[in-house]
Write a structure and sequence with these properties.
CATH topology: Glycerol-3-phosphate (1)-acyltransferase
Largest sheet: 5 strands, mixed
Organism: Microbacterium esteraromaticum
CATH superfamily: Glycerol-3-phosphate (1)-acyltransferase
EC number: 2.3.1.51
Oligomer: single chain
GO biological process, one term: phosphatidic acid biosynthetic process
Protein name: 1-acyl-sn-glycerol-3-phosphate acyltransferase
Order of helices and strands: HEEHEHEHEHEHEHH
Strand content: 5-15%
CATH architecture: 3-Layer(aba) Sandwich
Helix content: 25-40%
Distance between the termini: 37 Å
GO molecular function, one term: 1-acylglycerol-3-phosphate O-acyltransferase activity
Radius of gyration: 18 Å
Length: 258
């Protein structure tokens, strides 16, 4: 099957939008998806690998702000992702536009951070999966600014092992050229590729409460993403520079990145 085969030629019977998605998302998907396809003409491979019903995690590399738009546009079913709560809390006309846009593309607000904030985000994602929805997550944790693929954090594997949801690896190519870090508007002269791999059943690695199982499952996810994205491997975690001596010690010590 050609990588540029029309997306409308397969999975033509898209499932109904889940109740959780709401009217705004249904309308937004109906308008934004064909518009984005017409403008960017994305090359899409492996849509048949995405289960059309039930909980599923789309685990992707992360190169650009528009990744969270590219995946829902390319996927054959509604996909949800977590977005910074600040996108939903602005005031005035600009705040209203931001709020309506992110709601319409399936974003769900979350307060990002470490500790309890990170646990709350995992819990929100677990609830979405328990509703039988598809969620998009980035095991690297944050965008790659140099184009390399960084080590995966174990949160995605934890959710998969905890909920039993299959993981579909996703390789995004070219989104960093369409909208590089720092750019205010996407380029219209570049094309992107979205590759969906075969679903991964990670249950063979063990239970979610096993650190070894989470690490092995994460490594399997990242190997599948790497095969699709063909990025250079960084071999380290994508972490911001340590701001304090305590942060330097924390990053140097062996601990599980979630």
């Amino acid at each position: 099957m050609s990588s540029e085969q029309s997306m409308d030629s397969e999975h033509t019977s898209e499932p109904a939008t889940p109740h959780h998605a709401g009217f705004k998302y249904a309308v937004g998907r109906m308008i934004a998806t064909p518009l984005a396809r017409a403008i960017y003409r994305p090359r899409i491979e492996g849509r048949e690998n995405v289960p059309m019903t039930g909980a599923v995690i789309l685990a992707s590399n992360h190169l650009s702000f528009i990744d969270s738009m590219a995946i829902p546009v390319a996927a054959p079913r509604p996909v949800h992702f977590l977005a910074k709560s600040s996108y939903f809390e602005g005031t005035g006309f600009k705040g209203a536009v931001s709020r309506e846009f992110f709601t319409s593309v399936g974003a769900i607000p979350v307060r990002r951070g470490a500790g309890q904030a990170a646990l709350d985000a995992l819990d929100q994602q677990r609830q979405l999966l328990e509703e039988g929805l598809a969620v998009a997550l980035y095991p690297e944790g944050t965008r790659s600014t140099d184009g390399r693929l960084y080590r995966g954090r174990t949160g995605v594997a934890f959710l998969a092992l905890q909920t039993g949801a299959p993981v579909v690896p996703v390789g995004l190519i070219g989104t960093d050229r369409v909208m590089p870090v720092g750019a205010k508007m996407p380029s219209l002269s570049e094309r992107i590729s979205v590759r969906f791999g075969k679903p991964l059943d990670l249950s063979k690695h063990g239970a979610a409460n096993s650190g070894r199982a989470r690490r092995l499952a994460t490594d399997e996810i990242m190997a599948a993403i790497h095969a699709l994205s063909e990025q250079e491997l960084a071999g380290v975690y994508n972490e911001p520079p340590a701001a304090t001596p305590i942060d330097k010690i924390r990053q140097a010590l062996p601990h599980e990145r979630r």
